[in-house]
Specification:
single chain; four-stranded mixed beta sheet; 6 helices; alpha+beta
């Protein structure tokens, strides 16, 4: 089964530049992968040699996501987008969290391109349509490892029964586990740069082939 991923009118009106690209792939997730972490460590060492924490303000993918938050009514410094949070953590000299192989490789792609990327267990998504809208006051949402999250004013992907992903945190209901067998990864291009958004998705495919016993799946542009 594939997915119809669309931008709803409320988000489209405020963020007309938005472009998205998703990867839908069969996977084998593992607790950790030594070769992947060697690649991550080498990438981070090079990344820190080229950028400082002050460089974040010059990264279009990050600044565009912050702008989208402000347009939708959320403070991006209080509810920091995950792409920015990962880059900040890296440039502050802190170690990345080790979650699982598929989550770890998505985090690598997020740092490499600066985009906030949603990573979902595709088999836990209800229905075949995802719509990107804006969170409402009082809308229930359980952020992964965060508990109840106030998503009012946050961009949010919804399936047939509710929200599953924001750039700040994905939902517990559709999170990736070691039992997950199908991945849906969504790259959020609030900067409107379709070539970079696709390149980020293709990088995820490359990493899946190397580390998750996957053929890379297929791209979905929306």
């Amino acid at each position: 089964m594939s997915f119809n991923i669309q931008v709803g009118p409320e988000l489209g009106e405020l963020c007309p530049e938005y472009v998205g690209c998703a990867v839908l792939a069969d996977i084998r997730n593992t607790e950790t992968n030594t070769e992947l972490w060697q690649e991550i460590d080498a990438f981070i060492a090079d990344y820190r040699s080229r950028y400082t924490i002050d460089s974040i303000k010059e990264m279009p993918s990050i600044e565009a996501t912050r702008t989208a938050y402000r347009r939708c009514g959320k403070d991006p410094s209080r509810y920091r987008p995950s792409g920015e949070a990962l880059v900040r953590r890296t440039l502050q000299g802190k170690d990345l969290y080790r979650v699982s192989t598929v989550v770890d490789l998505i985090n690598l792609a997020s740092i490499a391109y600066g985009y906030s990327i949603g990573g979902f267990d595709a088999d836990r998504i209800q229905g075949d349509t995802l719509t990107l809208g804006i969170g409402r006051e009082g809308e229930p949402y359980e952020g992964i490892g965060r508990g109840p999250l106030n998503i009012a004013g946050l961009p949010v992907f919804r399936d047939a029964i509710g929200g599953i992903g924001t750039p700040t945190s994905d939902h517990e209901r559709t999170k990736l586990t070691l039992e997950s067998r199908r991945l849906l990864a969504i790259v959020n291009g609030y900067d409107g740069n379709i070539s970079q958004t696709v390149a980020c998705a293709e990088f995820i495919q490359q990493l899946l082939r190397k580390y998750a016993e996957s053929d890379g799946g297929k791209l979905i542009k929306f």
